[in-house]
Amino acid sequence: MRFYRKAGLGLASAAVLAAAIPGVRHWEGRSLRAYQDIVGVWTICDGVTDGVKPGDLATPADCDARLMQELRSHAEGLSACIDDPLVAQIPRQTAAALLSWTYNVGVGAACGSTLVRYLNAGNWARVCPELSRWTRAGGRVIRGLVNRRAAERADCEAGLHEAGLI
User: Fold this and answer.
1) Any signal peptide, and if so, which residues (predicted)?
2) Model confidence, pTM
3) Which CATH entry fits the domain spanning 10-162: 1.10.530.40, 3.30.160.20, 3.40.50.300, 1.20.1260.10?
Protein backbone atom coordinates (compact mmCIF):
# COMPACT_ATOMS: atom_id res chain seq x y z
CA MET A 1 0.00 0.00 0.00
CA ARG A 2 1.27 3.47 -0.86
CA PHE A 3 1.91 5.88 2.01
CA TYR A 4 0.26 9.26 1.58
CA ARG A 5 2.07 12.08 3.36
CA LYS A 6 -1.06 14.15 4.02
CA ALA A 7 -3.40 11.41 5.19
CA GLY A 8 -6.47 12.75 6.94
CA LEU A 9 -6.23 16.32 5.68
CA GLY A 10 -8.59 18.37 3.53
CA LEU A 11 -10.21 16.06 1.04
CA ALA A 12 -10.40 13.18 3.52
CA SER A 13 -12.44 15.13 6.06
CA ALA A 14 -15.69 13.57 7.21
CA ALA A 15 -17.68 16.42 5.63
CA VAL A 16 -16.09 15.92 2.18
CA LEU A 17 -16.47 12.13 2.32
CA ALA A 18 -20.14 12.47 3.32
CA ALA A 19 -20.74 14.98 0.51
CA ALA A 20 -19.13 12.67 -2.08
CA ILE A 21 -21.08 9.51 -1.21
CA PRO A 22 -24.42 10.31 -2.91
CA GLY A 23 -22.80 11.29 -6.20
CA VAL A 24 -20.47 8.30 -6.26
CA ARG A 25 -23.33 5.92 -5.44
CA HIS A 26 -25.47 7.47 -8.16
CA TRP A 27 -22.83 7.28 -10.89
CA GLU A 28 -21.26 3.96 -9.93
CA GLY A 29 -24.42 2.03 -9.14
CA ARG A 30 -24.40 -0.85 -6.69
CA SER A 31 -23.95 -4.51 -7.45
CA LEU A 32 -23.70 -7.16 -4.76
CA ARG A 33 -22.17 -9.55 -7.30
CA ALA A 34 -18.82 -9.03 -8.99
CA TYR A 35 -19.07 -8.06 -12.65
CA GLN A 36 -16.74 -6.81 -15.36
CA ASP A 37 -17.08 -3.11 -16.05
CA ILE A 38 -17.05 -1.50 -19.49
CA VAL A 39 -13.29 -2.04 -19.87
CA GLY A 40 -13.25 -5.52 -18.34
CA VAL A 41 -12.17 -4.72 -14.77
CA TRP A 42 -13.80 -6.86 -12.08
CA THR A 43 -15.97 -4.61 -9.94
CA ILE A 44 -18.36 -4.96 -7.00
CA CYS A 45 -20.49 -2.75 -4.76
CA ASP A 46 -20.24 0.93 -5.74
CA GLY A 47 -17.39 0.70 -8.23
CA VAL A 48 -14.90 -1.06 -5.94
CA THR A 49 -12.19 -2.83 -7.97
CA ASP A 50 -9.39 -3.51 -5.49
CA GLY A 51 -9.01 -7.26 -5.01
CA VAL A 52 -12.29 -8.13 -6.74
CA LYS A 53 -12.46 -11.44 -8.57
CA PRO A 54 -15.12 -13.43 -10.42
CA GLY A 55 -17.73 -14.92 -8.10
CA ASP A 56 -17.26 -12.38 -5.29
CA LEU A 57 -20.41 -11.45 -3.36
CA ALA A 58 -21.08 -8.63 -0.90
CA THR A 59 -23.81 -7.52 1.46
CA PRO A 60 -25.12 -3.95 1.55
CA ALA A 61 -23.19 -3.43 4.81
CA ASP A 62 -20.00 -4.71 3.14
CA CYS A 63 -20.57 -2.27 0.30
CA ASP A 64 -21.11 0.66 2.66
CA ALA A 65 -17.85 -0.12 4.47
CA ARG A 66 -15.90 -0.68 1.28
CA LEU A 67 -17.16 2.54 -0.27
CA MET A 68 -16.08 4.58 2.75
CA GLN A 69 -12.68 2.87 2.84
CA GLU A 70 -12.12 3.44 -0.90
CA LEU A 71 -13.27 7.07 -0.76
CA ARG A 72 -10.95 7.77 2.17
CA SER A 73 -8.04 6.14 0.34
CA HIS A 74 -8.72 8.13 -2.85
CA ALA A 75 -9.13 11.36 -0.88
CA GLU A 76 -5.83 10.82 0.90
CA GLY A 77 -4.15 10.01 -2.40
CA LEU A 78 -5.46 13.13 -4.10
CA SER A 79 -4.59 15.26 -1.07
CA ALA A 80 -1.02 14.00 -1.25
CA CYS A 81 -0.49 15.52 -4.70
CA ILE A 82 -2.02 18.91 -3.91
CA ASP A 83 0.08 21.58 -2.22
CA ASP A 84 -0.66 21.96 1.51
CA PRO A 85 -2.05 25.50 1.51
CA LEU A 86 -4.37 24.72 -1.40
CA VAL A 87 -5.85 21.53 0.07
CA ALA A 88 -7.32 23.58 2.92
CA GLN A 89 -8.78 26.16 0.51
CA ILE A 90 -10.84 23.75 -1.61
CA PRO A 91 -14.54 24.25 -0.81
CA ARG A 92 -16.42 21.14 0.36
CA GLN A 93 -18.68 20.92 -2.72
CA THR A 94 -15.70 21.29 -5.05
CA ALA A 95 -13.69 18.76 -3.04
CA ALA A 96 -16.57 16.24 -3.22
CA ALA A 97 -16.73 16.63 -7.02
CA LEU A 98 -12.97 16.18 -7.34
CA LEU A 99 -13.13 13.13 -5.07
CA SER A 100 -15.88 11.57 -7.21
CA TRP A 101 -13.70 12.12 -10.30
CA THR A 102 -10.62 10.67 -8.58
CA TYR A 103 -12.62 7.66 -7.40
CA ASN A 104 -13.57 7.00 -11.02
CA VAL A 105 -10.22 7.62 -12.76
CA GLY A 106 -7.81 6.58 -10.01
CA VAL A 107 -5.30 8.47 -7.88
CA GLY A 108 -2.41 8.06 -10.33
CA ALA A 109 -4.36 9.50 -13.25
CA ALA A 110 -5.76 12.31 -11.13
CA CYS A 111 -2.41 13.30 -9.65
CA GLY A 112 -0.76 13.30 -13.08
CA SER A 113 -3.50 15.42 -14.63
CA THR A 114 -3.57 18.96 -15.96
CA LEU A 115 -6.45 19.57 -13.53
CA VAL A 116 -4.13 19.01 -10.54
CA ARG A 117 -1.42 21.15 -12.17
CA TYR A 118 -3.94 24.00 -12.45
CA LEU A 119 -5.05 23.44 -8.88
CA ASN A 120 -1.47 23.55 -7.58
CA ALA A 121 -0.88 26.74 -9.57
CA GLY A 122 -3.93 28.31 -7.87
CA ASN A 123 -5.60 28.71 -11.25
CA TRP A 124 -9.10 28.07 -9.91
CA ALA A 125 -10.89 29.13 -13.10
CA ARG A 126 -9.23 26.34 -15.10
CA VAL A 127 -9.68 23.49 -12.60
CA CYS A 128 -13.33 22.50 -13.07
CA PRO A 129 -13.42 22.73 -16.89
CA GLU A 130 -10.74 20.02 -16.99
CA LEU A 131 -13.28 17.51 -15.68
CA SER A 132 -15.04 17.63 -19.05
CA ARG A 133 -11.99 16.06 -20.70
CA TRP A 134 -12.36 12.78 -18.78
CA THR A 135 -15.14 11.11 -20.77
CA ARG A 136 -13.41 8.12 -22.35
CA ALA A 137 -13.15 4.47 -21.37
CA GLY A 138 -11.61 1.84 -23.54
CA GLY A 139 -10.63 4.54 -26.04
CA ARG A 140 -14.14 5.79 -26.73
CA VAL A 141 -16.43 8.47 -25.38
CA ILE A 142 -18.98 7.00 -22.97
CA ARG A 143 -22.28 8.86 -22.57
CA GLY A 144 -22.45 7.97 -18.87
CA LEU A 145 -19.04 9.56 -18.32
CA VAL A 146 -20.09 12.67 -20.25
CA ASN A 147 -23.11 12.98 -17.92
CA ARG A 148 -21.07 12.25 -14.80
CA ARG A 149 -18.42 14.82 -15.67
CA ALA A 150 -21.06 17.46 -16.42
CA ALA A 151 -22.56 16.90 -12.95
CA GLU A 152 -19.13 16.88 -11.28
CA ARG A 153 -18.13 20.05 -13.13
CA ALA A 154 -21.34 21.82 -12.07
CA ASP A 155 -20.71 20.88 -8.42
CA CYS A 156 -17.04 21.83 -8.70
CA GLU A 157 -17.85 25.25 -10.10
CA ALA A 158 -20.71 25.86 -7.67
CA GLY A 159 -18.34 25.33 -4.75
CA LEU A 160 -15.75 27.71 -6.18
CA HIS A 161 -18.41 30.36 -6.92
CA GLU A 162 -19.84 30.11 -3.43
CA ALA A 163 -16.37 30.51 -1.93
CA GLY A 164 -15.63 33.49 -4.22
CA LEU A 165 -12.68 31.75 -5.86
CA ILE A 166 -14.03 32.24 -9.39
Assistant:
1) 1-18
2) 0.91
3) 1.10.530.40
